[in-house]
Amino acid sequence: TPDVRPLVAGNWKMNGTRQSLGEIKAMADGVHGMLSERVDALICPPSTLLYVATALCTDSPLMVGAQDCHQASHGAHTGDISAEMIADCFGTHVILGHSERRTDHGETDQLVKAKAQAAHEAGLTAIICIGETSDERDAYQTLDVLMRQMIGSIPLDATADNTVIAYEPLWAIGSGLTPTPTDVGVAHAFMRAELGQRFGEEGRHMRLLYGGSVKPTNARDLMSVENVDGALIGGASLKAADFLAIYSVY
Ligand code: PEP
């Protein structure tokens, strides 16, 4: 999208211990070395590594984010972390409504919206994930699902600065399968039109990431699709070499 600086974002999911910090350091150094003026980079390790990861990135443009937050700012919510805690660790972004959260923890659009509001209040950028299942795709419901999820999970205070939307077809996550560039283009054009309708200029500049089996081998094709402003990467973000190979397509 013209005037939109792409974002290459990694999601480590429930992977990574202190031993993996070398990969984050290598990513930080790699991004620093390439110093691309044209693209931003973000890594989202598990929250146990958040604080130490941001410390490794102080001299690098590589940003660090979290994978979820609670909708409340603090309180009696054992096991949860707040957006404020992420910001306190120098995290800048939080992934919200990932399909694994929606499936494993029953997160609804309404809850994802409340979490995004909490993220915004703490000064974080929310990366809101949406996407259809394979059954929905087979029933030609993809665009209906995207519409419902956009209306349901993007809060009214969303701007191009504080919100990123990630289109992640569920059947493409971790499967090695991807939609064709044409299908990605159709979904992203639809999202762009809907966001423009709802948020005007802000919606026209919101970053739209594609996620689902992005690898160094297919990144160039997927990232060159119109209205695709970067990638959300799972498996291929665990190794600095793969992550940097995808980053370097920009
Ligand atoms: C994800 O879960 O956000 C994702 C895109 O995973 P993968 O790249 O492994 O398909």
Automatic annotation (TrEMBL):
Give the residue range of the signal peptide: none
Pathway assigned in UniProt:
Carbohydrate degradation; glycolysis; D-glyceraldehyde 3-phosphate from glycerone phosphate: step 1/1; Carbohydrate biosynthesis; gluconeogenesis; Carbohydrate metabolism; erythritol degradation
Q: Which InterPro entries match?
A: Aldolase_TIM, TIM_sf, TrioseP_Isoase_bac/euk, Triosephosphate_isomerase, Triosephosphate_isomerase_AS
- Single annotated GO MF: triose-phosphate isomerase activity
GO-annotated cellular components: cytosol
Compartments it resides in:
Cytoplasm
Q: Which CDD domains match?
A: TIM
Is the keyword Nucleotidyltransferase in the record? no
Binding-site list for substrate: N11, W12, K13, G174, S213, G234, G235
Q: Does the keyword Isomerase apply?
A: yes
PROSITE patterns xref list: TIM_1, TIM_2
Question: Under which EC number(s) is this enzyme classified?
Answer: 5.3.1.1
Q: Which UniProt keywords apply?
A: Cytoplasm, Gluconeogenesis, Glycolysis, Isomerase
- Could you state one GO biological process linked to this protein? gluconeogenesis
Q: Which family does it belong to?
A: Belongs to the triosephosphate isomerase family.
Role this protein plays: Involved in the gluconeogenesis. Catalyzes stereospecifically the conversion of dihydroxyacetone phosphate (DHAP) to D-glyceraldehyde-3-phosphate (G3P).
Matches recorded under HAMAP family: TIM_B
Q: What is this protein called?
A: Triosephosphate isomerase
